[in-house]
Design brief:
Length: 155
Amino acid sequence: MTRRLLLCSHLGAPPALARLPSPRNKVRFDGVGPLRIGMAEPALRKILGPALRIETHDSGVYATWGDPHLGLVLIDGKLARIDVAGGRWRTVGGARVGSLESEIRDIFKKRIESRSHSFDPRGHVLVVASKLYALAFETDGDIVTALRAGLRTAV
């Protein structure tokens, strides 16, 4: 970490960029790497720097920052959800986009609630929730096609 921080400082990049989330960080119920659910936009901007792009759509406020596989959803100016669409990102339990539905069931055992998928009649949404946070795994019936982490109400 010290080398990365020194290198970024030496090259003129903000020191915070040395802490960018990477696939080495596991996706948790409450965030990934230095990103925490509930963080306000200025705190996100401090970590992600000028690469942070925020777009407002009819369905919400979305943020990207350079990794095409990781998206952020903001509600009332705060990070509410992290969307994972692929890449090497994994959850703390080792689940990822591309995992088998049976693997998700093995990792999270009886904590899973299975729902019908809104867009894929064969698919499921497997939800693992705590009081405040949740992980949701969208499947095509066999394989995880996307996953989300964040506030239970936003996942």
